[in-house]
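User: My notes are a mess, but here's the protein and pyridoxal-5'-phosphate's SMILES. Can you give me a structure?
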Amino acid sequence: MSSDATRVVHAGLPAPAQGEPFLPGPTFAAPYHLTGDPSSSPFGYQRDANPTWQRYEAALGALEGAEAVLFASGMAAVSAVVLALGPGDVLVAPADGYPGIRALGREHLAPRGVEVRLVPTDEAAVRAALGGATLVWLETPSNPGLDVVPIASLAEAAHAVGAALAVDNTLATALGQRPLDLGADLVVTSCSKALSGHSDLVLGVVTTRAGERAAALREWRSRAGAIPGPFEAWLAHRSLATLDVRLERAGANALALAELLATRDDVSGVRHPGRPGDPGHATAAAQMTRFGSVVGFALPDADRAQAFLARSELVTEATSFGGLHTTAERRARWGTDAVPEGFIRLSAGIEAAEDLLADVTRALDAVR
Ligand SMILES: Cc1ncc(COP(=O)(O)O)c(C=O)c1O
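Assistant: No problem, the inputs look usable. Here's the predicted complex:
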C-alpha cells in the first residue's frame, strides 16, 4: 500500500473474518486466564501486554516501517526515552520546545548527574552543543515557536559524535514528516494531539527501527507501569483512519489563516511552516509533506490577545493542538515559554475555511 491515505484506513486491522468486526473492541483485563506454563500465552497480565494496544502499535509501526511502543501519555513516552540516561550522559534538548522535557531535565536528570544542554531550535546552535553528547533531542517544528531544523544533517552530526537522535514529531505526525527515514534513531509522538485528533484522550508513542531499543522501552513500560488504557488505545486506533483527511483540511485551514493574518497590520510575527514567506519554509518543505495545523502570531499585548480570544466564536480557548475544533490560547499565560505577552498559538480545526476566516477577521476587527 503506497499511499498514506490508504494505509491509515487499514493499518493494524486484523484480516477480514466472517462475522467479525473491522476493528475488534477493546479488551479489558487485569489478569488473563493463564494456566500452567506462562510462556504458553502472549497475555498474562495487563501491565505487560494487551491485544488492543498491540493492534494500535502495529498500525503506528506500519506507518513508519518501525516498531511502536505505546505509553500512557506523550510525557510517559518522553520519560521512557530520557530517563534511560544516567550519570555522565549529556542530553542536548530544545530550550524553546514543549516545556515538559525541560522540567524533566531540571527536576530528574540534572540531579542524577546527567548534563542537560538547552539550545534553541536552530541548526547552528544544535551543532555547537554536540561535543560529548549522548542523546540529541529535536522538536521540529517546535512548539510553540514553529522553528524548523534539518533532521537529516543533524542526525549525521549527532551520529558523528556518537550520540543518538530523538525527534519529537507530535506536531507533524508520521504523515507529515518521517524522521526515521531522515536518520533519527527514535521518534516520540504525543497521540493526544493530531495523531488521534478528537481532543478526547491522552496517549504517547515511541517508534524505532532498533529492535533492542523497542524491547528496552517495553521493559521500562512494564516496570514503570506507564501503560495505556485499552479504551484510549482503541479510540486512538479508530481515529487513525481519518488522519489523512483531518490533516489535509486542518493544514489547508492553517495555511489560509496564516496568509490572512500576514496581511494585517495589527498582527505581527505570523508563523506557519507551510507559508512560503515563513523563515522555516525552505527547510520544512525539504523534509515535510504536510505542515501541521498550528499557526503562531502576536497581537500587541496580553489584553488585545485575550479580547480577540473572547470575541471569536469559532476559535475555542483551550490548550493543546491538533484537534477537530479550532482552538487557541495566549501561550504566555503558562509562564513556561519565552514568548511575547500577546503571542497566540492557534490550532486550525476542520471547520469550513470561509467560516474560520470570517470569524477571525470579525474578532480581530472588533478589538482593533
Ligand atoms: C510537542 C509535544 N511533545 C510532547 C507533549 C506531551 O504530550 P502529552 O500531553 O500527551 O503527555 C506535548 C503536549 O503538549 C507536546 O506539545
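The longest strand covers residues 67-71.
User: Great, I'll file this with my notes.
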